[in-house]
Amino acid sequence: MTTLEILLVVFVGFAGGLAVGTGFVAFLVVLGVIPRLTQLTKTVKRIHAYEWSAIAGAIVGGWISLRHPVWQLSKYWLAPIGLLHGIFIGMLAAALTEVLNVWPILAKRIGVDDKIVILLMALAFGKVAGSLFHWVYFVDYFH
Amino acid sequence: MANTVFIKLRHRVQVKPEALVTLGQVAQIAATDGGLIRRLKAIPLYRVQPSDKNIVIIDMMQVVRAVLDVDDSLDVQMVGPSQTIVEVLYEKRRFSTVAFILVWLLLFVGSAMAIMNFHEDVSMQKVHRYLYEVMTGQSVDKPLLLQIPYSFGLGIGMVLFFNHWFRKRINEEPSPLEVEMFNYQQAIDQYVILHENKESMRQLDDA
């Protein structure tokens, strides 16, 4: 490879990373998961630490997926990681229904303002049940 | 010196069909003379008609005119919102339990399908297997040790976002859902204030 080719590849890689990184941040900002977490835990002052945690997570994740390291850790580490992973995706999913304004319209249209929490539970239980079904049973037949 | 009355319209009031809306219902009144307040409160403003459907707007100017009709020596000072939204409450049609269960099941099944399609869409099974291999050095077909906690985490994350467990304990701020319902109601109120109030817009062909 000539120096020019190397520079070109570095440039393309950097530009691609920049585009994906800004997209990731924009997604997090639109859905407002981090402000929600600071509000729940009353740690608004630490919001910069949370920003860095998202950035560090993205870098570590990128490194793991591109470099394929092998760590030989106990498999039980996967359980807490799975739980955190699920909570994060669950919050993203909840935030998405909020951004799309699903609930107020649903409540107005079918007139169930007082029972909306029960309907919210339907969504949460549906997610849990669908996900368990998928991993335990469905993957055997689909892949 | 003229008697000064302060009138503050309420934002939203509920009435029965065919009701006679009086000033006392739609506004708070302050004046030095108690008898005057009682008289003003009884001023009829509007008789609800079936053609009104469920929203009527009482405009500030309408109120001023009605008060001056009763006593034109009064100095009327309007404060607060410039109109009241009168909501006519008809007999609520009961939302049947069967329909409710149907909606519940619709959301439950739809949500389950959506998450399964999402998993396939982002090839999550592959990612989970890969992560299992990175962490333990062994490869397995079904990394359930990661996936079962993940599944429960999904539900916890959704509930956490909507703030239903921690409501009383962690903070008394409204949940995002409550804020969202409030914003939606505000937008509707803004709309009806402009569109149901014949005085607020004047078109070219109006007299």
From TrEMBL, chain A:
Ordered alphabetically, the record's keywords are: Membrane, Transmembrane, Transmembrane helix
Question: Which InterPro entries does its entry note?
Answer: SpoVAB (IPR020144)
Membrane-spanning parts: 6-35, 47-64, 76-96, 116-137
| One Pfam family matching this protein | SpoVAB
Q: Does the keyword Transmembrane helix apply?
A: yes
Q: Does the keyword Transmembrane apply?
A: yes
The identity of this protein, by name, is: Stage V sporulation protein AB
Name the source organism. Geobacillus thermodenitrificans
List the lineage, top down. Answer: Bacteria, Bacillati, Bacillota, Bacilli, Bacillales
Automatic annotation (TrEMBL), chain B:
Instruction: Outline the extent of the Stage V sporulation protein AA domain.
Output: 3-91
**Organism's domain of life?**
Bacteria
**Keyword match Transmembrane:** yes
What keywords does the record list, in alphabetical order? Membrane, Transmembrane, Transmembrane helix
Question: InterPro entries this protein is in?
Answer: SporV_AA, SporV_AA_N_sf
Q: Which Pfam families match?
A: SporV_AA
Regions that span the bilayer: 98-118, 144-162
Gene3D superfamilies found in the cross-reference section? eubacterium ventriosum atcc domain (2.60.480.10)
What is the recorded name of this protein? Stage V sporulation protein AA
Q: What is the lineage of its organism?
A: Bacteria, Bacillati, Bacillota, Bacilli, Bacillales
